[in-house]
Design brief:
Blueprint: H1 7-25, H2 36-57, H3 63-92, H4 95-109, H5 113-119, H6 137-157, H7 162-186, H8 188-193, H9 199-210, H10 217-237, H11 250-262, H12 273-298, H13 306-325, H14 337-340, H15 343-359, H16 369-382, E1 392-394, E2 397-402, E3 409-414, H17 416-419, H18 422-427, E4 433-438, H19 456-459, H20 462-467, E5 472-476, H21 488-512, E6 515-519, H22 530-536, E7 541-543, H23 544-549, H24 552-559, E8 568-570, H25 572-576, E9 581-583, E10 585-586, E11 590-591, H26 601-607, H27 612-616
Parallel strand pairs: 3-4, 3-5, 5-6, 6-8
Antiparallel strand pairs: 1-2, 2-4, 7-9, 10-11
Domain SGNH: 404-600
EC number: 2.3.1.-
Protein name: Acyltransferase family protein
Length: 627
């Protein structure tokens, strides 16, 4: 079921892989280069629909043959990459990084990595630059599509004519697009990683095949050019802050579809030696480029690593294509099925090795006992977070509530640096009813916008204050600098706006609540991050001066607040550091934080005792003291 080689499709692959590679090496070059993955999805949808529907038309389609072809196309190069990374990682990675590599290798080879990365993409998500196989999420999405799509079409074909089947696919595309837009608005992470919100992009490619447009010869080049311009435009006008893949992704999708519709392989734009080679090697380049990007960050190879990394990605991609990928693309006869399935045992073995690495904590047994203790502490710290799901809703605001012994109320409001206080508050014999109104990664001022989720649950605090009479409110100033612009002029303007809004916030609170407490910020830094501390063998303390230097912008802003009079300001650094040093771990408990700035629950309970006076004392008149 071979089709004539299409240079335009090959060129689309080249454009897609180049955009992704450049984006990953430097976001500033192509801020929307991630849209290249969407182009890949369109191509896959077009080709898979063509193979399946042509087979159904001839009544010769075989699901088993379809799966065999996908195995030969995708698995060998992927399995080899995972095996090489696990082998090198044994010597080059810290145990905690190695166990994550093992987990992600197994997930990639079982095509579940998109789901794994989605579950890891919460507020405490480790940097994407630490995940050697993060890019395989797109392969998992495609493979899941390959598993479901042919079965669905074969079953539907039993009850529908081919024309009716085409209509069903068209309707499904529209519904899937609407779902993607809706989910992107609600949860951009789920929309980005999961098949249901990506399926429409592959189905859109399928529609190009199902509903062909016969263009006149003189219109093919203009249509193709428009399509290419739409794709390239998306690389420049979108950024990683753009909610994706909602309606914004229509631009590169429509562009890719127009190129496919034009079916013009004669244009010099798509038919040249460069696009031919890059398109041919695109899958292997895609596989190898991301680990090279991660290596630059992991080993601190500098901002100019791309000078080596980009050509190295192409060289390794071309080598992988020649010696691995191209060896598995030829058709096999049925009697040679055992040779066609050779990639599967190797992939299965590699996946099992990955699982073994994960379940032995990165082959932890190879280290000395003292090192094992510290690594185990780091592993435990990573998931050590006790903040329950909301158990109360007031005026559509989600609340965590701790019942006290009186009818007096305390409100804690802020982001994760208020959430981390919860274990401590829960451990107290509370006289007050305690309400937690929080939203991770947010700040109370309305001009602060988190690009990944809405902050309404925190920023609409006034609905709760009007409903409940609070005697005290505790909030955090930690997130004051969150998501400020990087350019100095824009940043200065945004800071001034945020200061004014925070002044308005304090004024509103003072009109309603007798006692207001602001927590400035806890010690933070990479030394507190268990994973990085182990990876780079960082010291167990930082100076108090270093800790305070990270809050210079915060302190300058607080000095400009006009409504701070009568508000109690508490500086956690004063209470958490001793003898001008801030500790990150000890021999008894191991690491104090779960990442570079969030306390573990036991540490919160132990060290936040300096807040006892707030929760155990009766309501006092507002004071202007600064502790």
């Amino acid at each position: 079921m071979q089709m004539k080689f299409r240079e335009d499709i090959n060129a689309l692959r080249a454009i897609a892989v180049v955009s992704v590679v450049l984006f990953h090496f430097n976001h500033d070059w192509l801020p929307g280069g991630f849209a290249g993955v969407d182009v890949f999805f369109v191509i896959s949808g077009f080709l898979m629909t063509m193979i399946i529907v042509k087979g159904l038309e001839k009544e010769s389609f075989s699901i088993l043959s379809f799966y065999k072809a996908r195995v030969r196309r995708i698995i060998p190069a992927l399995a080899f990459l995972c095996f090489v990374l696990m082998f090198l990682g044994l010597f080059l990675l810290s145990p905690i990084d190695y166990l994550n590599l093992g987990k992600h290798s197994a997930a990639s080879l079982t095509f579940l990595s998109n789901i794994v990365y989605w579950t890891e993409s919460n507020y405490f998500n480790p940097s994407s630059n630490e995940k050697w196989l993060l890019h395989t999420w797109s392969l998992s999405v495609e493979w899941q599509f390959y598993l479901i799509y042919p079965i669905a079409l074969v079953l539907l074909r039993k009850f529908l004519t081919l024309n009716q089947l085409k209509v069903v696919i068209a309707i499904s595309t529209i519904l899937a697009l609407l779902l993607s837009i809706l989910v992107t608005m609600k949860s951009s992470s789920a929309a980005y990683f999961l098949l249901p919100t990506r399926a429409w992009q592959m189905l859109a490619g399928g529609l190009v095949f199902l509903y062909p447009v016969n263009l006149k010869a003189n219109t093919k080049s203009p249509i193709q050019l428009i399509g290419l311009l739409l794709i390239v435009t998306s690389f420049f006008i979108f950024t990683s802050a753009t909610p994706w893949p909602g309606y914004a992704s229509l631009l590169p999708i429509i562009g890719a579809c127009l190129v496919l519709v034009s079916n013009n392989g004669e244009s010099l734009l798509v038919n040249n030696k460069i696009t031919h080679a890059l398109g041919k090697w695109s899958y292997s380049i895609y596989l190898w480029h991301w680990p090279i990007v991660v290596a630059g960050y992991y080993f601190d190879l500098g901002e100019h690593w791309w000078i080596v990394g980009v050509p190295l990605s192409v060289i390794l991609g071309a080598t992988s294509f020649k010696f691995i990928e191209s060896k598995t693309l030829s058709d096999f006869h049925l009697e040679k099925l055992k040779y066609a399935l050779r990639p599967l045992p190797f992939a299965a073995m590699s996946a099992l090795i990955g699982m073994l690495i994960f379940y032995t904590n990165g082959f932890l047994f190879r280290l000395a006992p003292s090192e094992q203790i510290l690594v185990n502490s780091a592993i435990e710290a990573k998931d050590d977070w006790k903040y329950p799901k909301p158990d109360m809703e007031i005026k559509s605001l989600k609340i965590r509530f701790i019942k006290g012994e009186t009818n007096q109320n305390i409100l804690l409001m802020g982001a994760s640096h208020i959430e981390q206080i919860y274990p401590y508050v829960k451990s107290l014999d509370n006289k007050f009813n305690v309400y937690f109104l929080t939203q991770g990664g947010c700040f109370v001022t309305p001009s602060m916008v988190n690009p990944k989720w809405r902050c309404d649950n925190l920023q609409k605090y006034n609905k709760l204050i009007k409903e409940i009479e609070f005697q005290k409110v505790i909030t955090s100033f930690y997130g004051f600098d969150a998501y400020l612009p990087k350019k100095s002029n824009e940043r200065k303007s945004a800071i001034n706006t945020r200061i004014k809004e925070y002044d308005d916030f304090l004024k509103a609170l003072k009109n309603e609540i007798p006692q207001i407490i602001i927590l400035t910020g806890e010690p933070k830094g990479i030394e507190f991050d268990p994973t990085i501390a182990l990876r780079k063998n960082l010291p167990s303390t930082i100076s108090e001066l270093t800790a305070r230097s990270k809050y210079t912008e915060h302190m300058e802003a607080m000095e400009k607040l006009k409504n701070l009079n009568g508000v109690q300001v508490i500086d956690p650094i004063t209470h958490l550091c001793e003898k001008k040093l801030c500790s990150t771990r000890d021999k008894e408990h191991g690491f104090f934080y779960r990442d570079n700035n969030h306390m573990r629950p036991w540490y919160s309970i132990k060290q936040n005792s300096y807040l006892d006076m707030i929760f155990l004392e009766k309501v006092s008149a507002p004071s202007a003291s600064k502790l």
